[in-house]
Fold:
Amino acid sequence: MNGSISSIENHTCRLCDKSTLRPFLDLGSMPIANAFLSSEQLSEPEYTFNLYTGFCESCFMVQLIDTVDPNLLFHDNYAYFSSISNVMDQHFAALANIISNEIFYDEELSVIEIGSNDGILLEKISGYSSNTIGIEPSSNVAEVAQNKGLKVVSEFFNSDLAGKLVMDYNPAQLVVGANVLCHIPDLNELAHALNTVLDDEGVFIFEDPYLLDIMSKLAYDQIYDEHFYYFSVTSLSTLFERHGLRLFRVEQIPVHGGSMRIYGCKSESRRSTEQSVVNQLQIENDKGLSNLESYIAFADSVKKSRLSLVALLDKLQNEGKRIVGYAASSKGTVILNYCGIGADVLEYVCDNTPSKQGLFTPGTHIPIVSIESFASDYPDYAFVLAWNHMKEISDKESEFRSQGGRFITHIPEARIV
Ligand code: DWN
Ligand code: SAH
Structure:
């Protein structure tokens, strides 16, 4: 029953513990999004789980119903290296600049970055404050940052670690994390840990994919194992308020196909709540983010989106065109598995991450090759599996386009661009 409500039965919300979690979208059986396979692993059974999403009618949090143990997701062979994108590098330089201009009140006070990955942001913040530490459980990417001379603790950020950090460092003036909050299954514990490490006048900043963008762009491929939650300002402020924390500013930002940057502090902080929070809560209410019907309508549109993508690829294949995938992203794993697109449709997927090249896509077993292989024998069409980087990829691949190649995107609907 892919793409529809597979059960009217309610589940328990992971955060508010009420039995008001209503399932609305079933994307079916899925492998781990970043579990790329070696040729030897192709004949072995793959770990799968049911990619099933629900909306809590009490606390408004959209969340996965079945989840994968974080230790299976974030480990010593994590596939995603943040520094693969120049646009993201510029984005984080701008964020570091905002932090230094608006947030720091003393460069000696401490800063914690959660989910610092290969150091893309941490390096820039360290340029402003010497007292900066990254927390990154995936030890292979943490090591890249450590090799740049950055201070990184390779552990999951949780209450225990927060307790140790306050013993060893000053209370944090800033806690920052990009694309990590939604990766943490127990956000009640996270809020508690934030309270422990934050200075009374400290600030936290998080950026994550924004639910309103996911829904308006039909970006169902943002839904996968690593993303336990899909945030709105409504659901996040409800969560933080329960834990003595408060959002004081929110900003929509364009990265990763549409994200929300939230700024927060302790409830008692001197910082006043800005109009942006009030405005966004009103927008979300007007768009129906507190109503189950909106999510049911989204699920219906997702099903249609799948049909239109499959029809477009079928048509091009029947015309004898050569089609490949561009970017072996986590999102790509969702699209390919949910839409049943395998190696019979895409000749290969090319990707600029050296460690992904030579491996195969999870579930669908399409070979991953280098961008150089793509350039050596251009196909007719390249289906972009990281649509969030479309501009960066299209700018890089002007030669492909000038030789007649075309990109395919499925966002917000399947089309040739
Ligand atoms: O939240 C997350 C985001 C930040 O990163 C994580 N859960 C995992 C990961 O998600 P993703 O894999 O969907 O990320 P991207 O950034 O959409 O995908 C990047 C992929 O695209 C990489 O494998 C590299 C590739 N790529 C490329 O081949 N050429 C990317 C760019 C920009 C390029 O020019
Ligand atoms: N901040 C980077 C990386 C995002 S990918 C960026 O925006 O590009 C998500 C990262 O969060 C991974 O590197 C993963 O290992 C890390 N992560 C997951 N759970 C975490 C936790 N509990 N504490 C700290 N980092 C975590």
Q: What stands out?
A: The first strand starts at residue 21 and ends at 31. The radius of gyration is 21 Å. The domain at 320-416 is CATH 3.40.50.720 (Rossmann fold).
